[in-house]
Amino acid sequence: MTLEEIHGQEPVPAGHDWMQGAGKALHELLVSAQRRGCLTAGVYESAKLMNVDPDNVAFCVLATDEEDEGDIALQIHFTLIQAFCCENDIDIVRVNDVAKLSAIVGPSEESGEPRDLHCILITNPNEDGWKDPALEKLNFFCEESRNVNDWVPTITLPE
Questions:
Q1: pTM score, two decimals?
Q2: Which residues neighbour 141 within 8 Å (Cβ) at sequence distance 6 or greater?
Q3: Which of 67, 117, 122, 130 is the most buried (most CB within 10 A)?
Q4: How, if at all, do strands 119-123 and 39-41 pair?
Q5: β-pairing, 91-95 with 39-41?
Q6: Is residue 39 within 8 Å of residue 69, measured between CB atoms?
Q7: Strand, helix or coil at 146?
């Protein structure tokens, strides 16, 4: 008998297809959120938004590259953001490719400057009943990951 059977839960589907599906869903969610104006990028901008209106945050993405792994200040920010997200029931994932994120999200619309993509928040728009199928898939992916004690799963974005 496995731990999942004891708790009556299905294990997270292992394999490349499950991870690829989560990566595709994240790509779709980022594009949709940006089009709707529901995307906040940047560690400090995200922290400000979570402090002012945490109930409006629907999803969090933390992104790093290999050179960011040694950035202690960034890691401290990530730890605080993760704790805040867990405390406020906000699903959170990691992405290990800021360049792919940049290709999806692009530069700042106001200034055209590259933006800080280490933390991205997806917020609920003011429209009632906005249900994004990609967000629902990612919420399910995060829930299943937590069932196997992976509290901040890493997602690989599609090429």
A1: 0.83
A2: 18, 21, 22, 25, 93, 153, 155
A3: 122
A4: antiparallel
A5: unpaired
A6: no
A7: helix
